[in-house]
Amino acid sequence: MKTVIKNISKLVQNDDNMIKFRAGNDMNHLNTISNAFIEIEDGLITDYGDMDDWKGIDDWNQTKIIDAEEGILFPSYCDSHTHLVYAESRENEFNDRLNGLSYQEIAEKGGGILNSALKIAEINEDLLYEKSLERLNNLILQGTGAIEIKSGYGLNLESELKILRVIKKLKENSPVSIKSTFLGAHALPIDYREKKSEYIDLIINKMLPAIKSENLADYIDVFCEKGYFNVEDTIKILEAGQKIGLKGKTHVNQFNSIGGVKASIENKCISVDHLEIMNEEDFLAFKDSSCIATLLPSCSFFLGIPYSPAKEFIKRNIPFNLASDYNPGSSPSGNMNFVSSLGSIKLKLNAEQVINATTINGAYAMEYENELGTISVGKKANFFITKPIPSYQYLHYSFGENLIDKIFLEGKQIK
Ligand code: NIG
Ligand code: FE
């Protein structure tokens, strides 16, 4: 069965050159087709173009026609950094912050990641799956079509595996494309407060082999930060991950620049994420690498910390993408429309730069650039169509509104 969608007022981000990502000045480039159609079959895009060039229907019995009603078609958002498998929200800590405590002070009192770890230990896998699926379904309605999900709220063998098994089940049951990341090195669990090297040994000698035997992760992550894991720890964990085929993605430079960017890039990480605090050495580390910077503006928004210097990345021709960091502590929203609006309002990116950063560049950060991120023949039919809006710029300009009218994932209409 073929599906043809017609009356698309504008089709955005079409590209058949199979680009990997857009960086620097090229981020201003965005292809569009006015008055367009798109054709899909077996979950893939098979044709698209100007309505005037549409060849028509050869077999009416085998073709479904959908009217886009003059909406604008965008490729689905590719959100390359989330922690959406968690047990409980943490609005109590949010309240503590409103009453004057800092995010770090809350963490030092045993709140934050350790609080989430206590909750994960208590919840059973089925309920954790249900809660996570509900969150994921909510994100689908906000336009997300590919997502990376991390563990990291377990901090012991059993609980880390519990989270990773939930992610695996989401992969098996959701139409969203999902990558799974093992983040055992997210914080030091309470029992290991004075025994960091023993916890790192536990990650390397117990958790990684178990993950490998059940094939539970695509990537490995480390929170490289003062008070968490230092550069030496980060390298050791990344190397151990690499040995079982897990490429790196790291949390670096959220609060301090301690050399994590350079170490991650030298250790062949796919992406380095956060980068709110950047110095010259951090920028220079990207030279001649294929690593992408993942910027998380809703974390800056929610915690009131500095925004990443996105414009500086453009100036230096360093590729970056925007992701949500969806988690209960520093970004309790995975709404990529809002992330896009922050990209413009706070990072000062224009609409073309934002769209590139949330689609093809996000896909690259998950190694999905050959399957997702642009409207291209042969790629997955993951896209959304808005209500009639005046322009593609309008989507992110009208922040806080949900303008998405129709959603297609793997060729199936979800909404
Ligand atoms: O990406 N910075 C480390 N990890 C998460 C937040 C974790 C939490 O507060 O639960 C982040 O912001
Ligand atoms: Fe994160």
Give a brief description.
The protein has helices at residues 91-98, 103-108, 113-122, 125-141, 157-173, 196-214, 231-243, 260-266, 280-284, 297-303, 310-315, 336-345, 351-358, 360-364, 393-397; strands at 2-12, 32-41, 44-50, 63-67, 72-75, 77-79, 144-150, 177-185, 219-224, 247-252, 271-274, 292-295, 320-322, 383-386, 404-409, 412-413.
Apparent shape: globular
CATH classification class of the largest domain: Alpha Beta
As for the number of domains, it is: 2
β-strand percent reads 15-25%
Outline the biggest β-sheet. Answer: 8 strands, mixed
The CA-CA distance between the termini, in Å, is: 19 Å
Integer average pLDDT: 97
CATH topology of the largest domain: TIM Barrel
* Integer-rounded radius of gyration: 21 Å
Named at the architecture level, the CATH assignment of the largest domain is Alpha-Beta Barrel
Number of alpha- plus pi-helical segments: 15
Helix percent reads: 25-40%
The named CATH superfamily of the largest domain? Metal-dependent hydrolases
The total of beta strands comes to 16
Poorly predicted spans: none
Structural class: alpha/beta
Enumerate the distinct ligands.
N-(iminomethyl)-L-glutamic acid, fe (iii) ion
